[in-house]
Design a protein that fits this description.
single chain; alpha/beta; Rossmann fold; 5-stranded parallel beta sheet; two-stranded antiparallel sheet; 9 helices; 7 strands
Amino acid sequence: MSYKENGKINRVHSIANGSFFISVSINIVFFFLSIFWVNKNWFKFHRYFDMSSEISIVMFGDSLTSLGDWNSLLGRNDVLNSGNPALTTSHLVNRVGRQVTDYGPKICYILGGINDIGVGIPMNRSTVNIERIVDSLKNHHITVVLQSVIFTNDAATNISVRSMNMCLQQIARKKGVDYLNLNTSLSKGGSIIGAYTTDGVHLSQRGYNVWRVLILEDLKSKKI
C-alpha cells in the first residue's frame, strides 16, 4: 500500500472518530438536559397523571418530609408530599411555586433549615428565604404552618438548631402564621429521642407516627 493511500485511510479514520466523538458528546448533553427538564417539571406531570383528588394539604420540605408517607400517615387522599432530599431553604424558595402554590392547597406545613445548617448557610439568609416562602403562600391565600427544625443527636448542630427555631418563631409572630414545635414530642433535653431516629437526623417509623399526631391535632383545630 502506498504512502498516499495510507494517508487517505488515516484521514477517513480520523473523520470517523471525530464524528463518533461529536455524536457521543451530543447524546451526553441531551441526556443531562433531559434529567434537568424532568426534575423541573416532575410535579406538573405528577399532578396530571397521579392525582385523583383535590390537594388540600402540602407537606413542603427536605428529606425529613419526603420520607413520610403522608396520605397513609394522615389517613387521607388529599395530601401532597412536596419534600425533596438535600434541599436548603434557598432551594425551597425556588420550588414553592411549582411544588405548592400551583396546587392551590388550603394549608402548607413547612419544614426546612437543617440542611442550611449542614452546608453553612448564614442564619440571616435562611431567615430571608423562609420569609419569602411565607409571603408567597400568604399571597395565594394558603394557611401557613412553620414547623420547628428537629433536633439531631449532635450537640454542636443542636446549638444552631435552637437558634434557627428562635428565628422561625420570630418569623411566625411577624407574619401572623402558626409555629408548630415538633421537638416537644420528638426530642428531650435538646436532643432527638433515640427511638425516633434512624441515624441521628432522619426519623424512624415511630418518629413519623409521633409527627403524625401533631399534624392531625393541628388539622383538627383548623377544621381541615
